Amino acid sequence: MSLFSHRTHARLKPNTSLPTSSWQRNASHNLGTEDRRAAIPPWLINTASLIVMGLLVLMSLSIGVADFSWSGILQSIISHSANSDSSLLMVSRIPRTIAIILTGVAMAVAGMIIQVVLKNRFVEPSMVGATQSAALGLLVVSLLFPASALIIKMGVATIAAVVGMMLFMLLIHRIPPTDFLMIPLIGIVFGGIIEAVTTFIAYQTESLQMLSVWQFGDFSGVLAGRYELLWLTGGLCVLAYIIADKLTIIGLGDNIALNLGISKRQVTWIGVGMVAMMSAVVVVTVGMIPFIGLIVPNIVSRLMGDKLRRSLPAVALLGASAVLLCDIIGRSIRYPFEVPVATVFGVVGTVLFLWLLLRAPSER
């Protein structure tokens, strides 16, 4: 249950005597007495996103190298017996599609959380060292304990991601929130250093091929029994929706959170832990996929404002649809070969990121 009602949000006003960042000004405007309405009604955005995602799911289930027909599925249902089409659907196509959806939802929501915690629109898990640290932890535990269970590897990767994000937050501690471009630049350099250390260790131990599996997100190897850890990210997304109001207030500034009795430290570390676990699970299961947590929250925020409880469903749906679309493109452009979804989204994400940087701010 939310700690704050909509009526409390309506009464909430920022302290104008204190300097605020652009995130704080936008969020304060959205939560002020004259609440800015979304450019498009939220129910319309969510409905359209569900329809688009449904169409993409059907396309994802239909596209593949192996022979597949929906008529064979219908015959299997009528005869109550399995055939090659139904087996392919249950073992490969459905698990892959579910993994794509969960990955898109997790990385988009993780990006939204880290943007609120750091009060910066231009950061995402791969820009704060989370995914790179998770890959480093996964490589170390795989080298030291190669026979360890997958859940142990995920736990070590999560701890490594938390440690990496802690170091990053210490690095940016003295940077003012208004200097919004320095934080992602420091994050890119920080992530590059961790990735260089990881690559050096992999080179010295002849593990570059294993490392490449985690550095490039790819769903071609997803089968039934190899993606179920991603359901943990679904639970974390539900938790993010439950504490959405607290995260929104943290984004308004330390003094406002203190006046409303919200523990900034506690909520911040909860958010950091959630982002670290989401990043670790995705890296362990399918590998790194950049730009989802950066592009999707920014697009949704331009359409729906900064209230997390209102925008998180749209962020999740758009994130899932974006990864589905890029995966379909990757499977189609060089059929029957596949281009990793991380490569496709990297190209698309770069173009969109430059557009977000160069686009003039919208009139309020």
Rg result: 21 Å
Order of helices and strands: HHHHHHHHHHHHHHHH
| Computed structural class | mainly alpha
The profile of the biggest β sheet is: none
Helix content: 55-70%
- The span between the termini is 31 Å
| Contiguous uncertain segments of 5+ residues | 1-24, 26-36
* Continuous helix count: 16
Total beta-strand segments = 0
**Binned strand content:** under 5%
Please supply descriptive tags for the structure shown above.
364 residues
Outline the structure in words:
The chain is an all-alpha fold and 364 residues long. It contains 16 helices and no strands. It has helices spanning 6-11, 22-30, 42-62, 70-79, 84-118, 130-144, 150-171, 182-204, 208-215, 231-242, 244-252, 254-259, 264-285, 292-304, 308-332, 341-358. Residues 1-24 and 26-36 have low confidence and may be disordered.
Kindly summarize this structure in a few lines.
With 364 residues, the protein is mostly helical. It has helices at residues 6-11, 22-30, 42-62, 70-79, 84-118, 130-144, 150-171, 182-204, 208-215, 231-242, 244-252, 254-259, 264-285, 292-304, 308-332, 341-358. It is globular and about 65 Å long.
Secondary-structure map:
Layout: H1 6-11, H2 22-30, H3 42-62, H4 70-79, H5 84-118, H6 130-144, H7 150-171, H8 182-204, H9 208-215, H10 231-242, H11 244-252, H12 254-259, H13 264-285, H14 292-304, H15 308-332, H16 341-358
Helix pairs in contact: 3-5, 3-15, 4-5, 5-10, 5-11, 5-13, 5-14, 5-15, 6-7, 6-8, 6-13, 7-13, 8-9, 10-13, 10-15, 14-15, 14-16, 15-16
